[in-house]
Amino acid sequence: MHGINQLVLIRCDVSCFFFLNPTIMALSKHVNPDKLIQDSHDKKSHYHGLTKANARQVEHTYGARYNTSPIPKYSISHKGINAEAAYQLIHDELSLDGSPVLNLASFVHTWMPPQADKLFQENISKNLIDTDEYPATQALHTRCISILADLWHAPSAKGAIGTATTGSSEAIQLGGLAMKKIWQEKRKAAGKSIHEPGPNIVMGANAQVALEKFARYFEVECRLVPVSVESHYRLDPKKAMDFVDENTIGVFIILGSTYTGHYEPVKEMSDLLDQHEAKTGHFVPIHVDAASGGFIAPFATPKLEWDFKLPRVVSINASGHKFGLSYVGVGWVIWRDKAHLPKDLIFELHYLGSVEYSFSLNFSRPAAPIIAQYFNLIHLGFEGYRAVALDDMKNARLLSRALEASKYYTVLSDIHRKVGSAMESMKDAVGMDDEDIESYTPGLPVVSFRFSDLYKEKYPEVQQHWIQTLLRAKGWIVPNYELPPDLQQVEILRVVVRESMTEVLIDQLVADIIEITEGLAHQGSSTHTLTILGQAQHKRNRAEQTEGSLKEGSGSKSSGTYAKPC
Ligand SMILES: Cc1ncc(COP(=O)(O)O)c(C=O)c1O
User: Which residues does this entry mark as bearing N6-(pyridoxal phosphate)lysine (predicted)?
Assistant: First the structure.
């Protein structure tokens, strides 16, 4: 028996001890909830004849209904549970996820019409690589490539070459690899070393992490061009030229920036590289990372020069699962002609009596997202895609103007500003009914914003990241993060306006942002209390993260390129 003043030391995990005493209880700084649950189980458990729940098992109520055993959380169970129980268990656990429609952090499309859902379901088990077995699926894949090559003005849709990928990331690796191989071939032909000095690639510091990954995984020096307010938070072509030399395999140009939606000036970069070639004789190609813009620019602003119309653009990638409006799992990479995809990257597969060509990083991949992409191309056509893009842009302008008109926020994205009148946003905001997309600065339907200087000055104690937390409490997922080097001291909130972000939802989002922003300005308001509560949200899943996943510090840092979910 423990006396009244006796301290009982309970070991709850390697890093945590707390002292139990009915009168004196010193709270530890950290309690391991996983361990807490393990220790709190009934010690003698004969749960309807089920095996005793041990520390690593999860008991669930459906066990009683379906007569199934508890299952271990982190190791495979000896005996499985029936499908109904497994479904219900997983279904319930996944309700902790955010709602995809309200996930405004993501560029990835989340809704398709029921007919597309049906096609997806019907083809869910098909593997795109099995071309011999699924020749009709392969035909749709090839047709998508021709359609995109044509849309992006390849000199000849027949002469262009490309492939589906799992997303833009894989497509970017392939585009980069092709440029690296071509550089190596040229160096070897000239009798020069390909190692001393090695190859380099130039991109804005606002690049998405997939671009930096290419450089690191495939041993190409990554030359990040710092961004500035003057360069609109994206690549400055003139500055980029300082980073280009005879070992530059190419320049990655982004349409548009993951941070703010700004399109990078492909034409200007191309012109500068033309001048460079005229002076030095070095041909430096451009790969356009049009992850999002590849399905916005051709429809919303078809006059914009960014694609294969510019001879220096040798390859383009886009995500079918972003503004291509398909479900997640499809990207595209297209080369303007076969000359820009070195033979070395193409594998000839002799398979079941036929010959197939493979030039992708993955072998097997689901065919259903590609079929869904083809569905969109024939269902929407040019007019349909344009209508969706214009609607997204209109809703993004609405959100931008409302935020700026509140005076609490400054919008960094420029798509609501008239061309050539970047300083006239407030004038634009009042009573403007001009729907002509051509009069606005081209870009993605993305709204990046920050506290206005006025708000910061008046309420210096209010932290911008609280807005993210408090919006989350209302269901909205709106990320708050730092801009890339050299603007990392600036934090932005960002909303991606996808098709599902209708005017009704914009309306509600604006109301919620204003309510929260004003609430935070008033000390002692309930919003202040909620802020503290909301910060705890970040900690969810902490227990899960300790099992099997990498701990902070296990990897090397990116150079500040965009590494948040998209
Ligand atoms: C500019 C850019 N490039 C590449 C990617 C990666 O695309 P994916 O998620 O399709 O691999 C993203 C994702 O948002 C992006 O915005």
Answer: 322
